[in-house]
Amino acid sequence: MIDFGNLKYENGLIIGIVQDRASKEVLMCAYMNREALEKTVETGIAHFCGEPRKKGETSGHLQKVKEIRIDCDMDSVLLLVEQVGGACHMGYRSCFYRNLDGEVVGEKVFEPEDVY
């Protein structure tokens, strides 16, 4: 197992990219510190900085981590997950739900006011 102390954190943070394991859709990216990464490994549920709890604790839209990969520079991690509900706090399956024209191209899976 790779020692998390050997990862290249910037200001104590590393980028975590979240991808649906089955569909390969990129769902989100967020910063992780070493503690969040360790909690993710320990619990099997994605944890991120800025959230003192696991992703989806309030909404119930969890990310069950099936595999973690580390890039060649050791400065980012890829979480392959089983997404329960939506990844985006705006109610979409993916945070990447708009194109450059601002057109909504993603699937809305819940109404934020119903879960937050």
**Percent of sequence in beta strands:** 25-35%
CATH class term: Alpha Beta
Major sheet strand order: 2-1-4-3
CATH-defined topology: Ubiquitin-like (UB roll)
Task: List low-confidence stretches.
Answer: none
Overall morphology:
globular
Give the helix tally.
2
At the fourth level of CATH, the homologous superfamily is Phosphoribosyl-AMP cyclohydrolase
Supply the number of structural domains.
1
Catalytic activity: 1-(5-phospho-beta-D-ribosyl)-5'-AMP + H2O = 1-(5-phospho-beta-D-ribosyl)-5-[(5-phospho-beta-D-ribosylamino)methylideneamino]imidazole-4-carboxamide
Pathway: Amino-acid biosynthesis; L-histidine biosynthesis; L-histidine from 5-phospho-alpha-D-ribose 1-diphosphate: step 3/9
Organism: Methanosarcina mazei Tuc01
Keywords: Amino-acid biosynthesis, Cytoplasm, Histidine biosynthesis, Hydrolase
Structure, described:
This is phosphoribosyl-AMP cyclohydrolase. Keywords: Amino-acid biosynthesis, Cytoplasm, Histidine biosynthesis, Hydrolase. InterPro entries: PRib_AMP_CycHydrolase_dom, PRib_AMP_CycHydrolase_sf. Pathway: Amino-acid biosynthesis; L-histidine biosynthesis; L-histidine from 5-phospho-alpha-D-ribose 1-diphosphate: step 3/9. By secondary structure, this protein is of the alpha+beta class. The chain has a single domain (4-103), classed as Phosphoribosyl-AMP cyclohydrolase (Ubiquitin-like (UB roll)). The protein has two helices and four strands, in the order ββαββα. It has helices at residues 34-43, 112-115; strands at 14-20, 26-32, 63-70, 76-83. The protein has a four-stranded mixed sheet, with helices on one face. The N and C termini lie far apart (37 Å). The model has no long low-confidence stretch (mean pLDDT 92).
